[in-house]
Amino acid sequence: MKKIFTNLYNWVDERVDLSDIVKFMSKKYVPVHSHSIWYYFGGVSLFFFIIQVVTGILLLFYYKGSADLAYESIHFIMSKVEFGWLIRSIHAWSANLFVLAAFIHMFSVYFEKAYRKPREMTWITGMLMFFLALGFGFSGYLLPWNELAFFATKVGTDIAGVLPIIGEPIKIFLRGGEDVTGATLSRFFGFHVALFPGIFTVLLFIHLLLVQRQGMSEPLNEKVKKTMPFFPNFVLRDLLLWLVVLNLLAILAVFFPAELGIKADPLAPAPAGIKPEWYFLFMFQTLKYIPGYVLFIEGEILGIFLFGLAGILWVLVPFWDKKSEQGRQNKLVNYLGIFAVMFIIVMTIVGWLL
Amino acid sequence: MKNILSKYIFVIFCLIFSQITNAKTDECFNCHSGLDDSPSKLFKNDIHQKVGLSCSSCHGGDNTSDDMEISMDKKNGFLGIPSQNKISEICAKCHSDIENMKKYRTDISTGQLEELKKSVHGAIAVDGKGMILQCTTCHNAHGIKKVTDSGSLVYPTNIPNTCNKCHGDINYMRKYNPGLSVDQLAKYRESKHGKLNLKGNRKVAQCASCHGSHAVFTSKDVRSKVYPLNIPETCSTCHSDKEYMKESNIPTDQFEKYKKSVHGVALFEKKDISAPVCNSCHGNHAATPPGISSISKICGTCHALNAELFGNSPHKKVFDENNYPECETCHGNHLILVARDQLLGVNEGAVCAKCHTEEKNPKGFKAAVKMRALIDSLVVLDSISRRQIFIAEQKGMEVEEAKFKLRDVHQAELEARTVVHAFDAEKFSEIINKGVNASNEVISEANSQVDEYYFRRYGLVVAVLIISLLALLLYFQIKRIEAKQNL
């Protein structure tokens, strides 16, 4: 077995000269310290993304992206296609866990100030991928064309529509017309399986390349004494965690399979308790609490504006957090981060319960 | 004694005197009587004249003066001939006044005008000037008699003709309800009610008995006494009254039986107004009990397929020859219960054995036993199918297809319960077989879903074991590599 591998390696090496890569890999070390655990969430996010790509392609074999056939095709996948139920359930669960892992990864990087110079580009590409992940979630949610998805999309796109001047064109662009129709489903399908994956792949490539090139960031106020080789130690640990996560996914998919609900009926009244996916819930709930008018500004517009501003500040943190860049503690960044985490958790729970 | 007698004579004298003075003072009537006009002629026998009302009670004016200029002066409240709603309002002046009417009868109703206004006759007439009907349309203006007087237009035996004045006039009726037939009176005269009414029987139902007198509504109006939901109760007002029906010699338990019947339950409990009520089988204006030979035709208006199958069955000839009422022989009449499978066969509660005894008619007996066994087996399979679907559904499995197929089983049961009226064991068994096959498919589909459920669970255990084993191996591999590195 080993001989086959050696022969294969030699065959490739003879043609493309792998020595540089091997040299680079063997010299790459991962710092070992009390916060090392957070390093693994990037890898877990990557694993979920891989699962999404694989299961997504399998679903594509049977899914039909039209208002007349979408619901029926998923019903077919769930009931007739061999292991179709499993693939769809894994896709649905993995989507949620992907966003969760990305959240954890993002906050761990933020609190570790790993975004500081020279890793600004890694942070930016990561944030862009995070927004794309939310876009994947929003667009994918509509694809089963069931009642909940239909009305959640209606509400979601309505929110975009309240923005002054650009709101209405954005809404019409997203919906492919005035209302959520088959045209919306078609374009959401396009975003979900072509546009977003294309952009995501490019960003992921840059992100991983930067991580490899620059190595892992080290904590600000902890002197790192120990390291471990990236290969095979860190890679194998990553793999071990992936296996654990895969187990978790399998259990969730079998015990809590994804539901299909009732087919969307554009003429039916909206059912009670329409809620977006959990990762949008904190924003949705906040918008509900803002009064109709704050001074002379419409409450909803103010809410969207504030979230937009917070998002921009968040993305640009490597550029305004000068203290961390200089290797000093920045308490303001910590407080803002703690506030953001608390705010998201509380509002999500409130939104879930109410 | 003498004293009492003299007082009595005095009272009588006063009464006669007052009548004379009264008659003398009603100058309107005196003058019009002299003219010998129709109103005054009719008014002579009018109930209102008898109780002391004069022309001026309705027409206004001063009835004490013989000078026309004074008696018919508007300053003295003279109204002339009232028209449209004014007519009914003048009648209501007294008839809606409880205190006033109490003088004549303590139990008299005083809400007639209000009822008329709400009724279909109270709607605005085509000329837009007032209600379609005024009091005088039915009661006349002059010469009004007590309702209990056979000369009254609204005396029970006169009512059909009074209503027919408008309801039998196609030119008049098409202005209001072109779809309403105008032959009700002709139909009524063909009914038991109509025939007896014509003979002067005032107890039998006439128009007002069923439709009401003042509060008449269309049969589509829920307030109407002839709205489907209300018909059984309307008919039972007379037909359930033993005392009232004493002379007619017909039973009075129809309503009680009907209430318990499948039709009565559908009507009263499920509020299904398409359920048959009294007039669906007996007719309404031409109400008559259906004849023995026509029962299947009457039931067949709704149960068309059953009636057709029965008509082509060997039973038809036998029933006709023996004068058995068709549907009624097995299902009864007013107390028609849900036709359960227990009606079929030779056991207790079954009707076949009434004629098909094992000794006299073994062929029919055997066929009945066989048909009952067949439908029973399908019912059992149906319940097994539903139970298996339930089990699979409880496990969260997809059972839409099985549920869809289950409809074929139900369809076969339904067909079998209809085809039974052909009394053909072979045809019956064909339908049952269809149901049995469908039910086997349902059971197998549901069972496969249950199997799939366990397959997923066991599959998960295997997958988790394999993945965990791999993870464990990897863990030891890492430990081994790291131990080597430390060395």
Describe the structure.
The complex is a heterodimer of chains A (354) and B (487). Chain A contains 15 helices and four strands. Chain A is mainly alpha-helical and 354 residues long. Chain A has two domains: 29-269, Cytochrome Bc1 Complex, Chain C; 278-354, no CATH class. In chain A, strands 1-2 form a two-stranded antiparallel sheet. In chain A, strands 3-4 form a two-stranded antiparallel sheet. In chain A, helix 5 packs across helix 10 (230-255) and helix 6 (120-142) packs across helix 7 (147-161). The mean pLDDT of chain A is 93. With 487 residues, chain B is mostly helical. Among the domains of chain B are: 145-216, no CATH class; 341-450, no CATH class. In chain B, 58% of the residues lie in helices and 0% in strands. Chain B contains 26 helices and no strands. Mean pLDDT of chain B is 90; it is low at 13-23. Chain A binds chain B through residues 75, 78-79, 85-86, 228-229, 232-233, 236-237, 239-240, 243-244, 246-247, 250-251, 254, 257, and chain B through 396, 398, 400-401, 456-457, 459-460, 463-464, 467-468, 470-471, 474-475, 477-478, 481-482, 485.
